[in-house]
Inverse folding.
């Protein structure tokens, strides 16, 4: 077992970076920076930004929505620390968390 770091980035589905969805841009940048692993998860409902407080949900009758997207990146501490400034530059609206995780299996 070893201790790695996990970045969890909470953004909206409609957020963009240089013309592409922000979640894909973050994933591509992580890959280019040789981050060990990354996953994007689409939420079925969520809210953020206390000022707006709107709950976004996936409803059949909605033509477009701004569902929550969660980008999770994991690697050794040094790699995450080096990549964090890139993430901070790209995420204009959202929340970024960082926590130590214990890797019990990596093959």
């Amino acid at each position: 077992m070893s201790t790695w770091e996990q970045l969890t980035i909470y953004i909206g589905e409609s957020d963009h970076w240089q013309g592409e969805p922000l979640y894909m841009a973050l994933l591509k940048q992580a890959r280019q920076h040789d981050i060990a692993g990354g996953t994007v998860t689409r939420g079925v409902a969520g809210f953020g930004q206390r000022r707006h407080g709107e709950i976004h949900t996936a409803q059949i009758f909605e033509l477009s929505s701004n569902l929550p997207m969660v980008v999770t990146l994991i690697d050794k501490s040094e790699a995450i620390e080096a990549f964090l400034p890139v993430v901070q530059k790209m995420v204009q609206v959202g929340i970024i968390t960082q926590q130590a995780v214990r890797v019990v299996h990596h093959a």
